[in-house]
Amino acid sequence: MNDRIHELLYRNLQEVFGEGDAERRRAAIEELYTEDCVLYVPPGTFVGHDALDKFAGDLRATHPHFVYAPHGEAQALHNAGRLAWGSGPRDEVPDYTGVDVIIVRDGKIEALYVFLDSVPS
User: Which domain of life is it from (predicted)?
Assistant: First the structure.
């Protein structure tokens, strides 16, 4: 289970939130998330594939040139995992950082909690 949780964390970062192509992003969401998934982010709570897809697509559109990079290694514990990351222009200091925490059910992400950090200037 730990390997699957690590895979879900890394793939979610790149293939969902880092993906600019809408079709590839939607395919990844369907593969990685349960149908009744819940996304918890500072702006609110989003339920299901459609809501997640819209949120990720809208977010991506605000900074299409940003990349997401893991900071450190993913960690897994029972049916949960976490991964710290940063986002910004490639090869530059991240504009913002955060931590993703996932809850996994039947090998898919059931819930994603996104904690955002402030980046010192």
Answer: Bacteria
CATH code assigned at 74: 3.10.450.50
Is the pTM for the entire model greater than 0.90? yes
Domain count, the chain: 1
Give the pLDDT confidence of 35-67 residue by residue, as tens digits.
999 999 999 999 999 999 999 999 999 999 999
Query: Burial letters for 18-53: b for 16+ Cβ neighbours within 10 Å, e otherwise?
Result: bbeeeeebbebbeebbbeebbbeeeeeebebeeebb
Q: What is the DSSP letter of 119?
A: P
* pLDDT above 70: residue 18: yes
Beta strands in the chain (DSSP E): 33-41, 44-47, 66-77, 80-89, 96-105, 108-117
**Range of the structural domain that residue 46 is part of:** 2-117
